[in-house]
């Protein structure tokens, strides 16, 4: 697999637009700098993102993403580049044009990003299940399924969470509203003990299917998943569970939007029909119920994972977002749902 163009360039977080123009000299050398238009995207909470295009030709927009401060602690950038190439080869992602010291240049997906209403639209949710099933069938080049990443990454995150914050008010919230590190480690071991026996298959997962990472192109009757920073081989039920958790949104989180049992059963049956499309036997009620139980238990792991992630971002990120508050929300929802979800039983 041919690699993307390497660009000798470092783009400062406060001069993304001028840096993007320099990147275009390599990935779009025929474009005249003074004719390039720039669109600034503000949805992301991890990186800075702009789009470069020529007047009247937004179809050929090139996205330039500048990694957030210290995000290499959270994201394996080499794996991200490999994942983008694998996904593009399988028709699941736009082309990766270039890589610079602290970011990427890649194709733009036209359509609308989902919101908390569109994500639960019956037609769109069916398309999400279809695309997830397709991604879950991507096989490793060497034919050997790697270890699932969930608990490996969580263990790494534990080495990065802060002991305290310099800001007194922030530190007080941290000490009062976040369980201690030893408590969190005990919770992780308890989770591991509850989830591993479920034997959820290990598949190629996106791992971050929130509303704004899904683009709906109505004219083509399809969705495209974007932003593959956290993609890896992981538990099938985790990828779905994380998606369901994200029905709550990010900017104004509302966990009452977590899909109910009826919605989930419909979604999961449709997903399994796509996932098992190559077998003659129909999907059974028992298969749907097994996945329902697996998914809701793994929903706890998704809250826990992003809670840890948020604490690290609260320490390092320069993005204007209250990561500590987001971490508190995730851990609170984990604790609120823990007994309910762990009590679910697999069918006989």
What's the count of strands?
11
- CATH architecture descriptor name of the largest domain: Alpha-Beta Complex
In one word, what is the shape? Answer: globular
Question: What would the average pLDDT be, to the nearest integer?
Answer: 95
Main sheet attributes: strand count, strand direction, barrel closure: 6 strands, mixed
Query: Roughly how many Å apart are the termini?
Result: 46 Å
Strand order of the largest sheet: 1-5-6-4-3-2
Helix content: 40-55%
Rg estimate, integer Å? 21 Å
CATH superfamily of the largest domain: Aminoglycoside phosphotransferase (APH), C-terminal lobe
Q: Determine and state the CATH class of the largest domain.
A: Alpha Beta
Order of helices and strands: EHEEEHEEEHHHHEEEEHHHH
How does this structure look, described?
The chain is α+β, with helices and mostly antiparallel strands and 348 residues long. The chain has 2 domains: 9-107, Phosphorylase Kinase, domain 1 (2-Layer Sandwich), CATH 3.30.200; 112-342, Aminoglycoside phosphotransferase (APH), C-terminal lobe (Aminoglycoside 3'-phosphotransferase, Chain: A, domain 2). Helix content is 43%, strand content 16%. It has helices spanning 16-27, 77-89, 122-136, 150-158, 168-177, 181-195, 236-245, 261-275, 285-316, 323-342, and strands at 5-7, 36-41, 48-54, 57-66, 96-100, 103-107, 112-113, 202-205, 214-217, 222-225, 232-235. Strands 1-5-6-4-3-2 form a 6-stranded mixed sheet, sandwiched between helices. A hairpin with a 6-residue loop joins strand 2 (36-41) and strand 3. Helix 6 packs antiparallel against helix 9. The radius of gyration is 21 Å and the shape is globular. It starts with a strand and ends in a 6-residue tail after the last helix. The mean pLDDT is 95.
